[in-house]
Amino acid sequence: MRKLKMKVTERKCAPKKSGVRFMLSGTPPGGKRVREYFPSRAAAEKRKTELEADITRAGFRSVNLSADERRELAELKSELAPFNKSVADAVAFYKAHLEALRKESSVTVTQAIVRLRE
Question: Are 30 and 60 in contact (CB under 8 A)?
């Protein structure tokens, strides 16, 4: 597995009024390019550390999730917690439900006539 290469650079072309002087950029393996801007090197370095920790902890796919998607996932997990179920359990249940609906709604004309007569 390829190591994450992220770097923090000072932007020379940014106007001083914008407050943006440092850029974090890089491409995680299998992901989209990350480019974020910060007013200080310390803030950029902190975000770099957070991204590296997220990738290590949750894998490379987590980087491609938006903040809204991560929040939504956290909310769904908390809603399932009282039932001692995970998001994977909920997806498996719903997938089975959809498969059953598809099989139930797809019948031949003969089967429909038999059901109607019952």
Answer: yes
Q: Tell me the pLDDT tens digit for each residue of 101-117.
A: 887 777 788 888 898 88
What is the number of other CB atoms lying within 10 angstroms of the CB of residue 24? 20
- pLDDT at residue 93 above 90? yes
50 vs 69: CA distance, rounded Å? 17
pTM of the model: 0.44
Mean pLDDT of 2-25: 67
How many angstroms separate the CA atoms of 105 and 98, rounded?
Answer: 10
d(CA 41, CA 18): 15
Helices (H), the chain: 41-58, 67-80, 87-105, 109-117
Q: 81 has which bridge partners? A: none
Q: From 24, 36, 25, select the one nearest 67 (Cα to Cα).
A: 36
Please give the Cα distance from 74 to 68 (Å, whole number).
Answer: 10
Q: Read off the tokens for 55.
A: 């990738």
